[in-house]
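Our consortium's second objective concerns turning raw sequence data into structural hypotheses that experimental partners can test. To show how far this objective has progressed, the report includes one record in full. It was chosen at random from the queue rather than selected for favorable results. The single chain below, 280 residues long, was entered without modification.
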Amino acid sequence: MIYFDETLYKSWHQSFRVDQVLYRDKTEYQDLIIFQSPDFGRVLALDGIVQLTEADEHIYHEMLAHVPVLAHGGAEDVLIIGGGDGGVLREVVKHPVKRATLVEIDGSVVDLCRQYMPSVSDGAYDDPRAEVIIADGVRFVAETDRRFDVIVVDSTDPVGPGKVLFTQDFYRACQRCLKPGGILVTQNGVPFTQPDELRQTHTDRRAIFADAWFFLAAVPTYVGGFMALGWASDEAAHRTRTADVIRSRFAAAGVRTRYYTPDLHAASFALPQYVLDLMG
């Protein structure tokens, strides 16, 4: 049997059985592999780190998309940095947004995921409201004159091309691109195994935004406990929307989900003590 060993951590690892390698090559930016695994379906890994599996990607993508969009309550323009697999885009366009702009540095990720993992984007790239820009997301937010209600950063871990998406300069540029009351959410790793990432992110963002916090999701692929998703906004009321308010908005949007619920939305902002300790 052949196994794919993830290389994210030095002291331990997880392995996926590989039934078939569907694609493997080094793109302009990173080593990319897509393979078939018996329990997790098709798996995408970049530079030896698993990005998503067909079996549980909905958990991560639903929480990244629906929490900020429904907390905002009136999002029309959404920016997605990264996310070339199309999962966040798929969930965003379930809402009555006017435009969803995806900026992905590696066009190969978009093309290969559409070819080998079409269920992830599920037609979202063909939505007339979807705009795809193959460009550096850091440069885009630094230079664009457009403004957004929600910015979702669906990045790799802070290694390789994704490292620049974990800097104070980038967060400040994102704030510049938000409309008043806008919300920024980010991928922030597993705090039990990546505590320094969460600690530094919180330090950087609370120096910029009026309200900086995290919310949680349990994604089996991202081993080591809860996955932390970063939250930042200058409108503190967005984070404390009650489940009743979110439930009303969720019903009005007519969105169907497999993991996300309004009650889970509200509860996801309650953090374990060890995470609060990391935040200082």
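The partners drew two points from this record. The two ends are 46 Å apart (CA to CA). The chain has ten helices and 13 strands. Both points have been shared with the crystallography group to help prioritize constructs.
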